[in-house]
Amino acid sequence: MFNAVRTVMTFAADSEASARWWGELLDVPVKLDVSDTGAVYAWVEIGGVEVGFHPADDERNPRGGSPVVYWGVDDVDRVRERLLAAGCEHHRGPLTIGPGRRIAQLCDPFGTIVGIEGP
After folding, report:
1. Residue 30 neighbours by CB under 8 Å, 6+ apart
2. Which of 18, 24, 37, 49, by CA, is between 20 and 30 Å from 87?
């Protein structure tokens, strides 16, 4: 049901500047996704893992908060339901972030935000 970790997301005051710093350090290209609100999600890919920088939001995603690790899954809805049944609580999503690519975040019983990503 769970595959390899696909994405690690951190929260930054300036997500694009954070990604560009890491991109330069690691000599990898920076990718950007600009929402219709103007928010920029920026990321670099390293060893098949997306390291993403999401705009910080004091209410939902504070800067300096723990990174969100996204597990690759075969079915976001099925795994989300299993996690909810096991005691997790809804946090965000499911959201479609690209063709065939969806994410959801849940809070485990200990307060850790967990991400799942897949179709």
Report:
1. 16, 19, 20, 22, 23, 42, 43, 44
2. 49
